[in-house]
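step=encode ok
step=design start
structure_in=
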């Protein structure tokens, strides 16, 4: 077993990682811990050890770290393990992972798990990026682009709340052209999701399944400050689907077309800008889960 650890986690998360390592010794497991040093390093590390075959590679970090590790093991028979240390840990909630270190260790020490079929962003340059939970365009992607990493590290998820308030004063709410399974739509924003949750425990839909191919898309037809506030309030109450001007549909192929240069985010991290094509990754992976 290898654990790929993002050291930008705070002191509290280092204690959690150490507790999981201690608990794993009770199962006779002494994993090798590999520390990431720069963006994309988790992918390189995962790819290098995945060649060994038949092993569990654990992502210790947030959803962005998980996505990097998945990029390195896709197409291999390595199993993905999770030690959630991020701000939101959406994927951990999606797969019903426990929070306590001893329980996390028990899951990692077990065999089997559940399939995850990741998504893939492909840009005009030919560059591809894997995501495990969701990608989006619109106001929330702008917020993610503007959150300073140091501020996020200090205050956690509240950094997004503060940045949301700031962005309300200058975001332009340009209409976005999006092609969904061949049909062109004009929207204010869209979330392309593999799972049911957003930003932690907030419910987008009850009908998504990250083990299956395809996506659930939440289309926001209305832009503007009041629309953002309504969406935020509905999200807090897990009632996004009840809002007028919100459509939730299933799709396999998505293209976010124009205008060019609109920010994108994936798994809570800034991920370039439009245009982009979104489709399933080349293969599913097995995730250690209860």
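sequence_out=
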């Amino acid at each position: 077993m290898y654990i790929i650890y993002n050291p930008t986690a705070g002191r509290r998360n280092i204690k959690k990682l150490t507790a999981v390592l201690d608990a794993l010794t009770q199962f006779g497991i002494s994993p090798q811990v590999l520390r990431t040093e720069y963006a994309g390093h988790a992918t390189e590390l995962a790819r290098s050890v995945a060649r060994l075959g038949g092993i569990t590679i654990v992502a210790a970090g947030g959803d962005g770290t998980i996505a990097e590790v998945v990029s390195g093991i896709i197409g291999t028979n390595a199993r993905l393990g999770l030690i959630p240390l991020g701000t939101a840990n959406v994927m951990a909630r999606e797969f019903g992972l426990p929070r306590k270190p001893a329980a996390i260790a028990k899951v990692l020490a077990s065999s089997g798990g559940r399939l995850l079929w990741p998504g893939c962003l492909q840009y005009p340059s030919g560059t591809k990026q894997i995501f495990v939970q969701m990608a989006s365009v619109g106001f929330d992607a702008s917020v993610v682009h503007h959150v300073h990493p140091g501020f996020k590290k200090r205050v956690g998820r509240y950094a997004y709340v503060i940045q949301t308030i700031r962005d309300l004063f200058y975001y332009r709410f340009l209409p976005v052209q999006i092609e969904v399974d061949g049909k062109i739509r004009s929207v204010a924003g869209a979330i392309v999701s593999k799972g049911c949750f957003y930003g932690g425990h907030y419910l987008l839909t009850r009908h998504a399944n990250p083990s299956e191919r395809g996506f659930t898309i939440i289309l926001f037809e209305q832009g503007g400050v009041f629309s953002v506030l309504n969406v935020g309030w509905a999200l807090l109450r897990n009632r996004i689907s009840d809002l007028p001007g919100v459509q939730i549909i299933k799709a396999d192929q998505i293209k976010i077309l124009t205008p060019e240069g609109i920010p994108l985010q994936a798994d809570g991290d800034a991920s370039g800008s439009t245009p982009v094509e979104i489709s399933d990754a080349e293969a599913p992976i097995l995730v250690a889960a209860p």
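step=design ok
step=annotate ok -> The chain has a mean pLDDT of 91.
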